[in-house]
Amino acid sequence: MSRIVAGAAGGSPLVSVPGDGTRPTTDRVKEALFSRLESMNMLAGTRVLDLYAGSGSLGVESASRGAKSVELVEFNDKAAAVCQRNAELVNKVVGSKVVRVQRSKVESFLERAAEAGVDQWDLVFMDPPYPLTEDELSLVLELLGPQLSSFAVVVVERSARSPEPVWPESLDLLSDKKYGETRLWFAEPAGDE
Fold this sequence. Notes:
Strand content: 25-35%
Helix content: 25-40%
Strand order of the largest sheet: 3-2-1-4-5-7-6
Order of helices and strands: HEHEHEHEHEEE
Structural class: alpha/beta
Oligomer: single chain
Number of helices: 5
Number of strands: 7
Largest sheet: 7 strands, mixed
Shape: globular
């Protein structure tokens, strides 16, 4: 059973998505990821976007640890319903509607956000399903780039066997780290050369 690791809702159990259509981030990877993000001061007061949210565990973990706002974007009906339940749990604990769920395809959500001039995001999680092609991932990264704050961090989680994402000109690779069958890539907005 997945849980919130730390923060205001630390220890709270999370609802999981039934079936095998999603791959939850393991607690070990989540602990390492959030330890790194805290050391980078990337949690308290940040605007977080969790794309391909699954159960929403990364987004709600961010809210538990002090994120200002969290958007969970998930297209699958069952997963979006689970996101809503986990969002309600954390929102109740923190006493504010910090986490919101958007049932949408990721590309459509990013296109609508760009058209609406939505605030820029500081921290973005992307844990796309394995069947998502590298070209599709590149398109999402391209759409995302202009919608990031200048100090943003993008975390892409994929199988350790997947190739490094093709980064658009708007993003630079910071680092990557392998955890068993999982690899995390960290990117940031490209600096002015």
